[in-house]
Amino acid sequence: MSDMRAVLAGIGILFAGFIVMAGLGGDHRDALAEAAEFGECAGNPGCEGDAALFFVAVACIAGAGAFMLYRGARGDWDSRVRPEDVVGPKRPG
To answer: What whole-number distance in Å separates Cα of residue 22 and Cα of residue 47?
Structure first.
């Protein structure tokens, strides 16, 4: 059995990473294209470093989501339910 809480948290964190990349990544992509074409970023001399830092941040968010998915798939929280906490039609006694 899997730990559904960790799986859902992992999916949410991965989704947040993709949303951050889609919403804020365009500015960094445009700055890098400008730097590649003209040799420097207009008004921002350190845009390559900013883009690398942004990529590392998004990779960390996505990595945390992947770790939570892995942890949820390997978890056993769902199978460790005490008999007195079981509810539903198949409850003994």
So the answer is: 18
Structural domain harbouring 49: 4-79
Q: What is the pLDDT of residues 27-66, one digit of tens each?
A: 666 666 766 676 666 666 666 667 778 888 889 999 999 9
Domain count, the chain: 1
Q: Answer for the pair 61, 21: CB distance below 8 angstroms, yes or no.
A: no
Token pair listed for 2: 């899997």
Measured in Å, how far apart are the chain's first and last C-alpha atoms?
25
Amino acid at 20: V
User: What's this model's pTM, rounded to 2 decimal places?
Assistant: 0.62
